[in-house]
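re: ur question from yesterday

yeah so i grabbed the chain u mentioned. its 72 aa long if i counted rite. heres the sequnce exactly as i have it in my notes:
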Amino acid sequence: MEVKIGVQHVARDLVIETDESAETIEKLVGEALEAGGVLSLTDNKGRKVLVPTATLAFVEIGIHTGQVGFRH
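ran it thru and got these structure tokens back, copy pasting raw so excuse formatting
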């Protein structure tokens, strides 16, 4: 699953690949926002991404297409 995270005042989005389901990611985002703390996601290689919820601009949850090469 591909997750794109927008952070306020940062030009580039964070993009991670994770084995978590869309439902699990949505639940983690919701819980982090309710608690007003930190969104914590783990990618396919075991690396953790931590983003303070106060700086979240958006979280886009999608399926990785596996496309290679240039896109039109």
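noticed a couple things. The longest helix spans residues 22-35. also The helical segments are 22-35.
anyway ttyl
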